[in-house]
Amino acid sequence: MEITGNTKNPKVLVIGCFHGDEPQGNYLIEEYLKENNTTNLLFIPCLNEYGVRNNVRTNENGVDLNRNFPTRNWELTDKNEFFGGETPSSEKETRFVVDIVEKYNPQIILTLHAPFKVVNYDGDARSLAEEISEIINYPVEENIGYPTPGSFGTWAGVERNIPTITLELDEEVEVESLKESVFKIFKLLENK
């Protein structure tokens, strides 16, 4: 886990690879940084390095990082691919993100996921979600359609009032074909 981009006074935090079987975020962030200087964006290109190396959703402890945040709705669940850990914030990756958010206090957060092709949002982020939707041509969805206890969106967007976008990318296309739209989204966020 590492951070890159503007570490002085970033306005926007962008996180890739909460889930190791969703590697698109890391690729897109790394490609963007090769071609662009950033003034307002702070990136965590790959949060779940173990999951990416092993092409699995969870981290090395079998925890779905997007169910491990200390939210009011966190719950101990069955040990499956959505297992939220034995306790909230039990995972080093979760604590890393919490520390980054507390240290840098971003005004907006974007996380890159797959495969649903939607712009999901938490907190006061509907208008931003609509702007992103216009760029990538995915529908805006406030609710992903199933329970997500302990999710990052609830922790950051709902409980901390940081507008939070979960961009669910199309996993059925070559990731290269997502560059143009995602880079436009990053540029949009640079100007927020």
Structure in words:
The chain is of the alpha/beta class. It has one domain (4-190): Aminopeptidase (3-Layer(aba) Sandwich). It is built from six helices and seven strands; from the N terminus they run ββαβααββαβαβα. Strands 1-3-2-4-7-5-6 form a seven-stranded mixed β-sheet. Helix 1 links the parallel strand 2 (12-16) and strand 3 (41-44). The longest helix is centred in the middle third of the chain and has 13 residues, at 92-104. It is globular and about 40 Å long. It starts with a strand and ends with a helix. The model has no long low-confidence stretch (mean pLDDT 96).
Features:
single chain, 192 residues, alpha/beta, Aminopeptidase
CATH fold topology: Aminopeptidase
What does the average pLDDT come to? 96
Cα-atom Rg, whole angstroms?
15 Å
SSE topology string: EEHEHHEEHEHEH
List the helices and strands and how they pair.
Blueprint: E1 4-5, E2 12-16, H1 24-35, E3 41-44, H2 49-54, H3 92-104, E4 108-113, E5 118-122, H4 126-136, E6 140-141, H5 152-158, E7 164-168, H6 179-190
Parallel strand pairs: 2-3, 2-4, 4-7, 5-6
Antiparallel strand pairs: 1-3, 5-7
Quick summary:
It is built from 6 helices and 7 strands.
